[in-house]
Design a protein that fits this description.
The complex is a heterodimer of chains A (134) and B (312). Chain A is α/β, with parallel strands linked by helices and 134 residues long. Chain A has one domain: 3-Layer(aba) Sandwich (Rossmann fold), CATH 3.40.50. In chain A, 46% of the residues lie in helices and 19% in strands. Chain A has helices spanning 19-30, 44-53, 68-81, 97-106, 118-133, and strands at 6-11, 34-37, 58-63, 88-93, 110-112. A five-stranded parallel beta sheet of chain A has the order 2-1-3-4-5, sandwiched between helices. In chain A, β3, α3 and β4 (88-93) form a beta-alpha-beta unit. The longest helix of chain A is centred in the last third of the chain and has 16 residues, at 118-133. Chain B has one domain: P-loop containing nucleotide triphosphate hydrolases (Rossmann fold, 3-Layer(aba) Sandwich), CATH 3.40.50.300. Chain B has nine helices and ten strands. Chain B has 312 residues and is of the alpha/beta class. The longest helix of chain B is centred in the last third of the chain and has 31 residues, at 236-266. The chains are: A alpha/beta (134), B alpha/beta (312). The A-B interface holds A 3-4, 6, 25-26, 28-39, 41-43, 45-46, 49-50, 52-55, 83-84 and B 1-2, 4-6, 8-9, 12-13, 69-70, 73-79, 81-83, 85, 88-89, 94-97, 99, 101.
């Protein structure tokens, strides 16, 4: 049996809306993954340090505050600075299509917006992070 | 830090043998503190406060925090970090969440490996936080040098503190949420339970805390120091070390045996015979004759019994 995937579910900045993050955390858990929840109000550095110490396969960042164009790129930057660019980085939230395209260009692997089916998110995580387990 | 993180993952995946063999000589320097208690009592918040105390003395700190895996999906939600966020970017604090991955007893199968690895990587103090326990998950007392049992007020009457199990393995009792109206009553119950007993050596300390506010943490840290000093002065530290060693050996051997047993059990099994006969047949595969009659009841032995009723 392959080891379970380890995924960080994070909330960053001044954003207290964690309902979505909790749903994702529970869904990934039920898909057999070990989900590490960081809690609210994290800085990009805290998130990346967590991912490193937990030897995570992926980071899922939820942002509903409108600060996505600031926070997502900062996490990408931190990952590179810490030599952890191999960790899969994806996100979700209320993010306009133009910003989604720009964030993907900047190095966020995938962004899920409201209405994305859980099964699609689980499939993505299994596919992208699973490569690290094999 | 990445090297330590990866090493722990390897151990979790069952590939710890080579690593531990290489690093074992470098272990044995850390103080190991076990923290156990029921879910929601404040173990993670206490951990965080203890990390702060150790950091103020310049110690490097490791935290291993175990949460349960789902028996159905094998997934887990590891949420202990939420209380430890203030330490995330401190390079002298290493926090690792572990899923129990089916292991019973309050820890994960690879917790002992994680502790050794953190020790070898230079952590001075290692805090081991168990899953939220019920009454009988006492494995922590075998692994840690100092075992803290955290309790919260209002969770039962005076009979609860007389029961066997985790209350017997405490080196230090913490009554967290000490601002609760029932806190003093719980303290009295623990004290009166202890008053009935004759302790062979160390007498458990009782500390009241409000971990969230940092209240009582200095007293708790002092109690830990006192216990560590006691272990060193009496030579019991060596007993503790060899206990932890045996614990891990038993763990490793048992893990292998259990997997082998599962294989046997998943093989076609006739239900025409009674369970004792079936067990005897399985045991024969392992080289045991004579069925199950010789099996002793399973026992985990954290130590010789520490206290007996006075006048016995």
């Amino acid at each position: 049996m392959p080891r379970p995937l380890r995924i960080i579910v994070a909330k960053a900045g001044l954003d207290g809306h964690d309902r979505g993050a909790k749903v994702i955390a529970r869904a990934l858990r039920d898909a057999g993954m070990e989900v590490i929840y960081t809690g609210l109000f994290q800085t990009p550095e805290q998130i990346v340090q967590t991912a490193i110490q937990e030897d995570a396969d992926g980071i899922g960042l939820s942002i509903l505050s409108g600060a996505h164009m600031t926070l997502f790129p900062l996490v990408v930057e931190q990952l590179k600075a810490q030599g952890a660019g191999d960790i899969v980085f994806f996100g979700g939230g209320t993010i306009p299509p133009d910003d989604v395209a720009e964030l993907k260009r900047l190095g966020v692997q995938e962004i899920f917006t409201p209405g994305a089916p859980l099964s699609e998110i689980i499939e993505f995580v299994k596919r992208e992070c699973g490569a690290r387990v094999a | 830090m990445r090297a330590l993180a990866r090493a722990i993952s390897q151990a979790e995946a069952g590939h710890g043998a080579e690593l531990i063999r290489r690093l074992f000589d470098r272990t044995g320097n850390a103080i190991t503190i076990g923290l156990t208690g029921p879910p929601g009592v404040g173990k993670s918040t206490l951990s965080s406060a203890l990390v702060r105390a150790a950091r103020s003395l310049g110690k490097r700190v490791g935290v291993v925090s175990v949460d349960p895996s789902s028996p159905f999906s094998h997934g887990a939600l590891l949420g202990d970090r939420i209380r430890l966020t203030e330490h995330f970017t401190d390079r002298d604090v290493f926090i690792r969440s572990m899923a129990s991955r089916g292991h019973l007893g309050g820890l994960a199968g690879a917790t002992a490996d994680a502790v050794l690895l953190m020790d070898a990587f230079g952590m001075d103090v290692i805090i081991i936080e168990t899953v939220g326990v019920g009454q009988s998950e006492i494995e922590i007392a075998e692994l840690a040098q100092t075992t803290i049992v955290a309790l919260q007020p209002g969770s039962g009457d005076s009979i609860q503190v007389l029961k066997a199990g985790i209350l017997e393995v405490a080196d230090i009792f913490v009554i967290n949420k000490a601002d609760h109206p029932m806190a003093n009553q719980l303290k009295r119950e623990i004290r009166s339970m202890m008053a009935m007993l004759e302790f062979g050596g160390w007498v458990p300390e009782v500390v009241m805390t409000q971990a969230l506010l940092g209240e009582g943490i200095e007293e708790l840290w002092n109690a830990i120091q006192k216990h560590v000093a006691y272990l060193r002065e009496t030579g019991e530290m060596n007993v503790k070390r060899s206990q932890a060693f045996r614990h891990q050996v038993r763990q490793l051997a048992r893990g292998r045996l259990e997997r082998r047993l599962e294989e046997e059990l998943s093989a076609e099994m006739s239900e025409d015979i009674d369970p004792y006969e079936a067990a005897a047949r399985v045991l024969r595969v392992f080289g045991f004759d004579g069925g199950v009659a010789e099996t002793e009841p399973e026992q985990i032995r954290p130590a010789p019994q520490r206290a007996t009723v006075k006048g016995l």
